Each structure stands twice: as structure tokens, then as C-alpha cells.
Amino acid sequence: MRPAGPAAQARPARFSPARRLLCEAGGMARLLIVHHTPSPATQVLLEAVLEGARTDEIEGVEVVTRPALAATAVDVLAADGVVLGTPANIGYMSGALKHFFDGVYYPCLTDTAGLPYALYVHGNDDTAGAVRAVEAIAKGMSWHRHRPPVSVTGAPDAAAREACWELGALSALATLERVG
After folding, report:
1. Residue 117 and residue 147: Cα distance in Å, rounded?
2. What pLDDT shows up at residue 27?
3. Which helix (H) or strand (E) holds 84?
4. I need a surface site. Which of 5, 19, 43, 78 has the fewest CB within 10 A?
């Protein structure tokens, strides 16, 4: 049952009742960043995403960061948007990010439909297989990709860092739009 009132009626049904009440009470939007960061290159990209998501120009978003092996279904169910970060390992996403998806798939399958997500991937040679795999799972969960993935090969340069900063900032905005 949905709470009464015009604000509640305007809320999409995809919010859990508890999350809807929190948003209506003026709670902050929550952006969850799930990452596997085993290398200096992926750390640089994560830091750029975090800087963008936490920019002073965007207010009202709580940024929650979880390593892929520690992120849970509860984290996803409490989120209003998700950023996923992974290295491309042997043409696929990291095992850690796949483990995350395995753990959240069924508990989150129906309650997170429409969740905005974004992706950044780092690889030494190629990221196409990792991007394809993540997008297939996100599509299966009915998540909505709000930005094209940021794919970086080799050492991250200024353009890669800027693209990740922008991905973080725009993900924070997409999270606000979903709540607002």
C-alpha cells in the first residue's frame, strides 16, 4: 500500500515503502558506488568518480562506497542510483563484481527495476567484453543506464580522469532526479 497524498502518488512504484517514506521526509538521495579496485589505474578512476559524485555543486546526495566483495543486496535496495567500477580481466568483468551481481540478483530483481546506473571499466588492452557482460546483467535486472560507459585502456590520462569525474557527477544528478 502506498502512502496517501500528492507527493506519494507522484512517486514511482519501484521504491520500497520505507525508501519512499524516507524520501518524502526530506532524506538525502543515495548513490552507491560498487567497485573492484585492485590496481593503481582503477584507484585513479575510482577517485575521479568519487570527486565528481561529491562535488560541492551537487547537494542532497549521500555517496556510499562499497568494494564489490563487501556490497550487499541491502546496499542496493537502499540506493537511488549505482555506479559500477571494474577492471577488464581476460575479456570479462572482475570476479569480484560478478560475485556482487550473483549476491544481489534475486533479492533486488523486482524492487530495483528502473534503477539508474553507470559503469566505468579499465583494461590494459580491451574492455568490450567486460562492458558487454555488465550491461547484460544490468539489463536483466531492468536497471537503466543513464550514461554510456567510460572505458579506459592503458594508464589513465587527464581525459580519462575527467570522463570519470563527469560520470560521478552525472550519476549523482541522475540519483537526485529519481528521488525528486
Report:
1. 8
2. 75
3. strand 81-89
4. 5
CA distance 40 to 20: 38
Domain positions in the chain:
34-179
pTM: 0.86
Instruction: Give one word for 166, left, alpha or beta, with left for phi > 0 and alpha for psi -120 to 50.
Output: alpha
Q: Find out whether 122 and 42 touch, Cβ atoms under 8 Å.
A: yes
Which of 73, 69, 65, 72 minimizes the C-alpha distance to 30? 65
Written as nine digits, the cell of 141 is 535486472
Reported as half-sphere exposure (CB side, CA atoms, 13 A), residue 55 has a value of 17
Q: With the CA atoms of 152, 153, 157 and 163 taken in that order, what torsion angle do they form, in degrees rounded to the nearest 10?
A: -10
Q: Which pLDDT does position 107 carry in this prediction? A: 97
Q: What is the pLDDT of residue 20?
A: 52
Low-confidence ranges of the chain (pLDDT < 50): 1-19, 21-22, 25
Distance CA 175, CA 180 (A): 9
